[in-house]
Amino acid sequence: MTATTGEDHERLARVMDLALAVRDLGAEIGLPYVAASADISSPEPMLGSDGLPLAETTFQWLDAGLRYWRDRAFALRAPFILAARYAAEPFFYHQGRFCSWRPLAKLEAIPVAEAAQDFGVAAAIIAPTYLTGGVIGAVVWASDSPLPDLPVLYAARADQMHGAALRLVSAYRDGLADDAPLVRLTKREIQCLKWAAAGKTDADIGQIIGISGPTVRFHVQNAALKLRVAGRAQAIHRATGLGYLGSAAF
């Protein structure tokens, strides 16, 4: 990413201020090592106004030789990133396991102690950042020493840390969002996409909601045009990211 306009400069200046705030917050509470991603599905690092990774210029990690942002497969094997896919709220790493303010079976089932030891992490607070369009970012604050009072610290500061992480990642994503217009899908388009997401054919959907197969195709294609994507699968993906489709019963 290169700052080429006044708007880019303003945005990147804002990102730098927010990155410094994230870093300083960690130092203040005894979690001075920071790693951040604006999109855990992408290996691309977050860049500063100088075009260099924030991981090199602003944030410091425990092992200076572990240049995780240059490892394109890092996110696929890091348990901290895996956990961010299953928890939308901040959580913490304490005494060899992930914890939250309430029991979360999936989070607690993730094996993390060995990987954390390999990374040199003894304590951490992780703030996932769920953004529009289905993008997930994350900020990790860590320490190489155990923090006996980490659960208390988490209870007191998790909301503040989540806000700081969300502002940083959201501001960074401002420069990466697509230029697609605002989209309003109709009730029928949503119905068709929901059943398509459930694996139903056009004929199946037509029988279920009482319209013809060609009419189902029309609604799905129209939704795809509105969403500026090609094909049924991409329309389902984009509509899901915008909150039109979910896990509610049909």
TrEMBL record:
Single GO molecular function: DNA binding
InterPro entries found in the cross-reference section: Sig_transdc_resp-reg_C-effctor, TF_LuxR_autoind-bd_dom, TF_LuxR_autoind-bd_dom_sf, Tscrpt_reg_LuxR_C, WH-like_DNA-bd_sf
Domain HTH luxR-type: 178-243
SUPFAM superfamilies: C-terminal effector domain of the bipartite response regulators
Keywords attached to this entry: DNA-binding, Transcription, Transcription regulation
SMART domains, alphabetized: HTH_LUXR
Domain of life per record: Bacteria
GO biological process, one term: regulation of DNA-templated transcription
Pfam families per record: Autoind_bind, GerE
Protein name, entry field: LuxR family transcriptional regulator
Organism: Caulobacter sp. 602-2
